[in-house]
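Researcher: Please predict.
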Amino acid sequence: MGACCCDCEMFMNAYVLAHRFVTPGYWFTDAYGQEAWEDPKWPEQLPECHKVRRGSTQLCEVWERRYRGYGYW
């Protein structure tokens, strides 16, 4: 899955926050009339995992598999 050296690589290369928890990015016109991009935002506090026991190697509904070559957003 692309994680070879540390646990942190699991979240850099293998899994991402499920799309339904992310506020999507969007284009808008700023106060000066310029087009600007607002980046996607994660929630301030992540939801708790359910349906898996603590310490499980299975994903809960908060995370989803990241596929290489497939855009996150």
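Model: Residues 8-14 form the longest helix (7 residues).
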